[in-house]
Design goal:
single chain; alpha+beta; 9-stranded antiparallel β-sheet; 3 helices; globular
Length: about 230
C-alpha cells in the first residue's frame, strides 16, 4: 500500500475525525443493546384458541381501554412474595385495559418471569410458551393471540414502572416488564402502571440465575402463582 505523508495539523484532524466516528459507533451500539433488551426476541406467535387461557375465558381480541381516571390494584403472588401494581388508565389506556382483562381471566396464573436483566428489568407474561411447569424453549416469543396499538408514553421510565414488551411498533400482547432502576429508554414501550409494594420481591427475582447474552433467560424461572385484581 502506498503511504502519503500528512502534515501534523492534517494528521490531527484525521485522528480526531476517526475518534468521533468510533465514539458515535459505540453510542449507537449501546443504545441498540438497551432497546433490544426489552423487546421480545422474535415476532409474536399467535396462540391456539383457548391455549393461553388461565382459569377463565380470556380475550381473543384487544379488550377495551381502561379510561383515564380509572385505576386498579393488581397483585402478583410469587414464591418470593407478592408484587402489587397500581394500574392506571391515564398512563396507557390500551395497555392498562389489556393487562387488567388478562389478570381477571387468569391468563397470568402460572406464567413465569422468563427474562432477568440485573439493574435493568425483569420480564414475564408469555402465557403461550412460559407457563410453569411446562416451559417451552420458545418462551419469550408468545402472546395472547392478538396484538394491540401502542399508547403514547408521557412518564419517565424509573424504578418500579411497569410497561409492555413488544417486537416493534403496535405489537403489544401479554408480555410486560418491571423496571429495576432509573434508566434511559426511548418511549417505545407502553407504560401502564407502577409497583407500589414488593420491589424487594422484584429485586429477589432479578437476582436469580440467568443465562446472560442478549436474552438473559432465567435459569430457574419464578412463576406468578396467582394474579388478582381489585376492584
Amino acid at each position: 500500500m502506498t503511504r502519503f505523508p500528512l502534515r501534523s495539523s492534517v494528521r490531527r484532524l484525521v485522528v480526531l475525525g476517526l475518534l468521533a466516528i468510533l465514539v458515535a459507533g459505540c453510542v449507537s451500539r449501546q443504545t441498540s443493546t438497551i432497546l433490544s433488551t426489552v423487546g421480545e426476541s422474535a415476532p409474536l406467535a399467535p396462540a391456539a384458541p383457548g391455549a393461553s387461557a388461565g382459569s377463565g375465558s380470556c380475550p381473543t381480541s384487544p379488550p377495551p381501554p381502561l379510561a383515564a381516571g380509572t385505576t386498579a390494584n393488581v397483585t402478583l403472588a410469587t414464591p418470593k412474595g407478592s408484587i402489587v401494581i397500581k394500574v392506571d388508565g391515564a398512563l396507557g389506556p390500551n395497555a392498562a385495559g389489556n393487562f387488567v382483562a388478562l389478570v381477571r381471566c387468569g391468563f397470568y396464573d402460572g406464567v413465569v418471569f422468563h427474562r432477568l436483566v440485573p439493574g435493568f428489568v425483569i420480564q414475564g407474561g408469555d402465557g403461550q410458551f412460559g407457563r410453569a411447569p411446562n416451559i417451552d424453549a420458545r418462551v419469550g416469543q408468545g402472546g395472547p393471540g392478538y396484538e394491540f396499538a401502542d399508547d403514547p408514553v408521557s412518564t419517565a421510565i424509573t424504578r418500579g414502572v411497569v410497561a409492555m414488551a413488544n417486537s416493534g411498533p403496535d405489537t403489544n400482547g401479554s408480555q410486560f416488564f418491571i423496571v429495576l432502576g432509573d434508566i434511559r429508554l426511548d418511549p417505545n414501550y407502553s407504560v401502564f402502571g407502577t409497583v407500589t409494594t414488593g420491589m424487594e420481591v422484584v429485586d429477589a427475582i432479578a437476582a436469580m440465575p440467568n443465562g446472560g447474552g442478549r436474552d438473559n433467560r432465567a435459569l430457574e424461572p419464578v412463576p406468578i402463582t396467582k394474579a388478582s385484581v381489585e376492584p
